[in-house]
Amino acid sequence: MKMEAARMQPAPLPPGGMRDTRDLAAWLAAGVLLLLPLAYVGTAQSIVSIWTRSGTFAHGYVILPISAYLVWQRRARLRGVPQRPCWPAVAALALCGAVWLVATLGEVLVVRQFMFAAMIPLGVLAVFGVEVAKPIAFPLLFVLFAVPAGESLIDPLIQLTAGFTVDALRASGIPVLREGNNFSIPTGDWSVVEACSGLRYLISSLTLGCLYAYLTYRSWWRRAAFIAISLVLPIAANGVRAYMIVMIGHASGMRLAVGIDHVLYGWLFFGLLMLVLFWLGRFWREEAPAESVEPPSIGAAPARPGQRMAAAACAGLAFAAWPAYAWHLERLEGTAPPASLAAFRPALPPASVFTGWSPAFAPPSVELRHFLSTPQEAGLMAFYYRDGGKARLVSSINRLTGQRAAWHETGSLLRSERIGGMELPVREVTIAGADRLLVWQWYVIGGEPVAGDYKAKLRQIRHKLRSGHGDGAIVVAFTRMEDSPEAVRPVLRALLASQLGGLHAAIAANDRR
After folding, report:
1. SS3 for 178?
2. End-to-end CA distance of the chain
3. Angle, vertex CA 425, rays to CA 420 and CA 429, nearest 5
4. Which of 242, 248, 389, 427 is 20 to 30 A distant from 380 in Cα terms?
5. Do the beta carbons of residue 469 and residue 453 sit within 8 Å?
């Protein structure tokens, strides 16, 4: 029996043999992960540029160092873990790349950035396996907080803050007259703008809350509860902050909390609130178990070097294939002729400029502006954007009112109008400022009208896949509104009944075939 047992023992590895092959597989795996920022350098640069110019997302600079440090803390745990490729993660990498490509075609920057960030933990999982990725799952997923996302929450947060502040003021016995995000009290006028939305507080609180929960608690229910509190608390606190600032201004006769101290009071209040939250959270702290390195179980042998190299090669292909294809599509796009809307000729007599309002859009490739008589005065504007230019057709930058302008939106809805035998989807917006206006806005992409940013993005992606480009236009029709929208909608219908066909034809003449 002893002879048989000795006969079954494997011979020792010669110097250089299998060990060199394993080292080669490790270096190849590391090279695949380094390939990620190189293949997606444009997306990585877009993330860093937002960190630099926006204080809301400046925390992104510390996310990667924190993640790296948390991984380094688990190095003892990772030493004895077998490395086996995870092939489903390679498929997930390919799926992320496909979504990144679609987002690139549709110019949806935040989706591109999320797919890029998601490839980092998926790359580790694909090449090194579940046994390696599981102990460092949180540091790998924490990388997602580096993506500058959340701007779509600004408008809902503004509405929530404005509603809470107005309700709290009325409950305090102060009369309030509200119009949209603006309200007036006896001592002065106030407006809840983007900086008052509380998005910066929300992102900071959620990021710190997740990190604190990971470092402080071991049970999942305690972590989930603390993260939920860190998510809800800043929203409620921002409403209280806005109410306190208005009350300070009201009590001081609009001498305090109306300048830089407005911002200072807000951050002091939020900082104090976070300190109290983390201080209370320490009472439920759970001590971390002693770090131990368990020997690999039976059947948990590491993968052969050939398998690891194959997984690394497939992961590298999943990384690089999509940027390469995007570059190929960009080359096919070619150089487009200059856009022109000169073919449009108004069929109504001109009218005087009756308002100083103008959309706050990024500079288009070409535009037209006409004030016409229906017989009531109305306006018609079109902004054409060539795909690949500096400005994008569908973008959060393109707004009907600027962030600090004297004009503001007081209402918005999507509706459908029948104009000249065709269904025209429009986004109807009421705007207040020096005048009150009713505005209809829609996109024209591939000769088809569409309303709403999300639908326009999907239409633009579909058109780009079919034709190789995503050119299109934003059309705006507007008129002065004295009463309700119902009273002036016939004015816009009469305007478009004679102008819509010619305008859409002038836009379609710029399409590249």
Report:
1. strand
2. 81
3. 115
4. 389
5. no
Report CA-CA distances (Å) from 469 to 243, 330, 504: 48, 9, 18
How many C-beta atoms surround the C-beta of residue 311 within 10 A? 26
**Separation CA 499–CA 159 (nearest Å):** 36
Confidence band for 5, pLDDT divided at 50, 70 and 90:
very low
- Tokens coding 363: 């500079």
Gyration radius (Cα) of the chain, Å: 29
Residue in this structure with the two tokens 């995007």, named with its chain if needed: 326
Q: What is the pLDDT of residue 6?
A: 42
pTM: 0.69
Query: DSSP alpha helices (H): ranges in 40-153?
Result: 41-53, 60-73, 75-79, 87-105, 109-128, 130-133, 137-142
Nearest to 293 by CA among 127, 124, 82: 82
Phi/psi for 392 (5° steps) reads -105, 150
Contact residues for 513 (Cβ-Cβ < 8 A; gap 6+): 467
CA gap 73, 386 in Å, rounded: 50
At residue 83, does pLDDT exceed 80? no
Cα(227)–Cα(32) distance, rounded to whole angstroms? 33
pLDDT of the residue at 439? 96
Dihedral angle of Cα 145, 147, 150, 151, to the nearest 10 degrees:
150
**Alpha-carbon span 73 to 214, nearest angstrom:** 13
The burial of 422, by beta-carbon neighbours within 10 Å (0-12 exposed, 13-18 middle, 19 or more buried), is given as exposed
326 contact partners, CB below 8 Å, separation of at least 6: 101, 104, 105
Contact predicate 186/175, CB 8 Å? yes
**Which one-letter DSSP state was computed for residue 295?**
P
Closest by CA position to 278, among listed 365, 213, 345: 213
Residue at 33: amino acid letter:
L
The residue ranges of DSSP E strands in 240-283, in sequence order, are none
**pLDDT for 128-152, tens place per residue?**
888 888 999 999 999 999 999 888 8
- Token representation of residue 51: 């960190």
The three-state DSSP-derived secondary structure of 118-151 is HHHHHHHHHHHCHHHHCCCHHHHHHHHHHCCCCH
